[in-house]
């Protein structure tokens, strides 16, 4: 099970075609089509070569930080009319390529290390953005330690900056409903980013608003002090442990 985790970075690095030094000089969003090898039944689901793109965005209010993302156009017949879903894997520090290849993305990795289209990918009906964040997660990077993020306020500021750049690069999507989603430590990221968008929309003119419509968190870690205390009761109610064990844990 560990081998696919090794090949995913190798695949993506070979396809981007830009060195870290080249990307670090960019002062704008740079995006290129991605053609992944060994994809079975690609034509059956009309997955064109330009439907998946990868990019870097040099964050405006940092020293040298560049944020990596994957953008997947919806498989629907008119992707320009479908919602936009931003996905952030948790950790903190887990790359969103985990979701792209293993969870809700357009592909999954087969036993022989090939790729197959997933019939359950969220991209069936949504335009998906998978972001590696905070900086120094996955392929997002900075050579300046001052760009490290240690709190949700910093995460939200960087993601708001990125979203503005993304919608400027894709104006056909800027009026579409946007949903902020994530898992695990996304229980911190998703509310923080959503709140930053909400506050931004309250303070600016209508033509620069982000069309936030909702948020969703799966298996979210929000407050360990509260959540961990409920694990024993959950395990008891679902028949995983007996009452004696439960009482011992809660003691």
Describe, in plain words, how this protein is organized in 3D.
The protein is an alpha/beta fold and 251 residues long. The protein has helices at residues 3-16, 20-24, 97-102, 152-169, 186-203, 224-237, 243-250, and strands spanning 29-33, 39-40, 52-58, 66-72, 84-88, 107-109, 115-117, 127-131, 178-183, 212-218. A hairpin with a 7-residue loop joins strand 3 (52-58) and strand 4 (66-72). It is globular and about 60 Å long. The model is unreliable at 1-26 (pLDDT under 50). One of its GO terms (molecular function) is serine-type carboxypeptidase activity. Keywords: Carboxypeptidase, Glycoprotein, Hydrolase, Protease, Signal.
N to C succession of SSEs: HHEEEEEHEEEHEHEHH
- Alpha-carbon Rg, integer: 20 Å
Q: Note the main sheet.
A: 7 strands, mixed
Could you give the order of strands across the largest sheet? Answer: 1-3-4-8-5-9-10
So what's the oligomer here?
A: single chain
**What is the helix tally?**
7
Strand content: 15-25%
Tally of strands: 10
What is the 3D form?
globular
Which consecutive residue ranges, at least 5 long each, have pLDDT under 50?
A: 1-26
Helix content: 25-40%
Helices and strands: which structural class? alpha/beta
Mean pLDDT over all positions = 83
Could you give the distance between the termini?
38 Å
């Amino acid at each position: 099970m560990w081998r696919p985790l090794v090949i995913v970075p190798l695949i993506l690095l070979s396809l981007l075609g830009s060195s870290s030094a080249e990307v670090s000089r960019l002062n704008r969003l740079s995006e290129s089509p991605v053609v992944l090898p060994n994809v079975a039944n690609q034509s059956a689901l009309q997955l064109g070569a330009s439907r998946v793109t990868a990019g870097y965005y040099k964050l405006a209010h940092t020293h040298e930080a560049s944020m990596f993302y994957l953008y997947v156009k919806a498989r629907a017949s008119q992707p320009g009319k479908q919602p936009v879903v931003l996905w952030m894997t948790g950790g903190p520090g887990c790359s969103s390529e985990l979701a792209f290849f293993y969870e809700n993305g357009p592909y999954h990795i087969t036993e022989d290390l090939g790729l197959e289209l997933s019939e359950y990918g969220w991209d069936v009906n949504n335009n998906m953005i998978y972001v590696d964040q905070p900086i120094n997660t996955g392929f997002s990077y900075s050579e300046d330690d001052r760009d490290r993020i240690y709190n949700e306020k910093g995460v939200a500021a960087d993601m708001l900056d990125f979203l503005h750049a993304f919608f400027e690069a894709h104006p056909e999507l800027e009026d579409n409903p946007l949903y902020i989603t994530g898992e695990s430590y996304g229980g911190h990221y998703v509310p923080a980013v959503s709140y930053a968008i909400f506050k931004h929309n309250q303070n600016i003119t209508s033509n620069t608003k982000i069309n936030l419509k909702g948020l969703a968190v799966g298996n979210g870690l929000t407050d360990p002090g509260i959540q961990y205390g409920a694990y024993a009761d959950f395990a008891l109610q679902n028949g995983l442990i007996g009452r004696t064990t439960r009482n011992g844990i809660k003691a």
